[in-house]
Amino acid sequence: MKYSQLRAMWAITKASLRAISRSPSAIVFSFVFPFIFILVFGFIGNNGGASTFKVVFAPQTDTANALYQAITSADGVKSVSFPDAKSQQDALEKGRIAGVVSITKESAANGTAYKVWLKSTTSSNDKWPQLKALIENRINKISNQVYPNRPSYASFDFNYNTDIREIRQYKTIDFILPGMLGFSLLSSGVFGVAFMFFNLRNLLVLKRFFATPINRSFIIMGEALSRVIFQMITAVVIILAGHFFFGFTLINGVQTFFEMLVLSFLGLLVFMGFGFIVSGLAKSDSTIPPFANLITMPQFLIGGTFFSIEAFPKWLQPVSRALPLTHLNAALRKVAFEGQNLYQVRQEIGILMIWGIVVYFIAIKVFKWE
User: Fold this and answer.
1) Are 120 and 160 in contact (CB under 8 A)?
2) 95 φ, ψ to 5°?
3) For domain 53-159, is the CATH number 3.40.190?
4) CA distances from 229 to 21, 150, 196, 348 (A)
5) How far is the CA of 325 from the CAs of 260, 265, 277, 370, in angstroms?
6) Residue 342, class by beta-carbon neighbours within 10 Å (0-12 exposed, 13-18 middle, 19+ buried)?
7) Residues pairing with 111 in the sheet
8) Torsion angles phi and psi, residue 368, rounded to 5
9) What is the DSSP pairing of strand 99-108 with strand 77-79?
10) How confident is the model at residue 232 (pLDDT cuts 50, 70, 90)?
11) Which distant-in-sequence residues (6+ apart) come within 8 Å of 132 by Cβ?
12) Would residue 99 be called left, alpha or beta, if left means φ above 0 and alpha means ψ between -120 and 50 degrees?
């Protein structure tokens, strides 16, 4: 009977999968840690996880008045602009901005008057009430203290978009879960692969494999496949648990779910490349954690896992945007909440693929069989 490389590879995969499922560290990093954070942030509430909110001022806004200056100088308010009306409306409908503010000067019998108008959607339910309260506070302060003639400001006119797909609330879990999924993939890919291949080499298991007819490439594929299967099961559990227990948004349902799995698979492949590098560089099992932490900790802390990278200092943001985990997290969030498809997040996917090419090029150079 002819020796089957595929059958041998599958045997390695099943054996490795059993070993991973019995490993406490694999369970902790892949399941326990992400679920602890998901539970904590899932019960916090629906505050969107952001400390600031963005505001767009309409083109007709009169900027030469105290109210405009008071709003733009307020803590937590950031004035932003968009290249065209379509992109602005898209950002408004998807909750990226708190609202569009218009301040126009009007003539009045008792002096100068202004009309204030705010446009928002219920996608920004966690933002525009704060904006409304801030504007009302500034109006009262200016009316009472700045203008001696007490100018009158018209009442707010709130317009809502009634498209049912746009009436959704951006919750804390919508931001946190993709970050936790990315963290799980990163930890499993780097630590799991590094320890696995180092131990296989150190315990002379690979040498025993060499005594069999199996090809070396099938050894790697078998071990890697076990890691992929285990981690994809983890991704399925994390996404579904977040959706059914905490209301994590899967805007297009099953389609979004599978698109997130595709992104998870791509991210895991890149992170496994880092694991191959660490296993090749490590001289002992005690040197694996320092090497692995050099790769995982910066991404975990500034890769958009807990906070938007816009909350970091400007000098740090380019570093954050260069990290692969940042782009994986961004792609997962855009697909899950904003309803973008894989083609629309092609920039994030492209950057991940570039990282993959670089990482595996290095991995091939440093990987050791013995």
Assistant:
1) yes
2) 80, 15
3) yes
4) 11, 68, 15, 23
5) 14, 13, 17, 31
6) middle
7) 108
8) -125, 140
9) unpaired
10) very high
11) 118, 156, 158
12) left
User: Which residue is listed with tokens 């004035």?
Assistant: 79
Give the model's pLDDT for residue 154. 42
Place of tokens 């602009």: 81
Q: Which residues pair with 105 in a beta bridge?
A: 114
Q: In this structure, what token pair is assigned to residue 131?
A: 């904006």
Nearest-angstrom CA–CA distance, 105 and 65:
9
| Other Cβ atoms closer than 10 A to 307 | 15
The predicted structure's pLDDT at residue 167: 37
- Computed on alpha carbons and rounded to an integer, the radius of gyration of the chain in Å comes to 26
**How far apart, in whole angstroms, are the C-alpha atoms of residue 121 and residue 330?**
22
The backbone torsions φ and ψ at residue 118, rounded to the nearest 5 degrees and listed phi first, read -125, 125
Q: Extract the tokens encoding 370.
A: 């013995």
Buried-exposed string 62-90: b where 16+ CB fall within 10 A, e elsewhere: eeebbbbebbeeeeebeeeeeeeeeebbe
User: Residue type for 37, please?
Assistant: F
Q: Which of 127, 118, 131 is nearest to 170 (CA)?
A: 127
pLDDT per position as a tens digit, 180-202: 899 889 988 898 888 888 887 77
| pLDDT tens, position by position, 100-109 | 888 887 765 5
The domain spans of the chain are: 5-45+171-366, 53-159
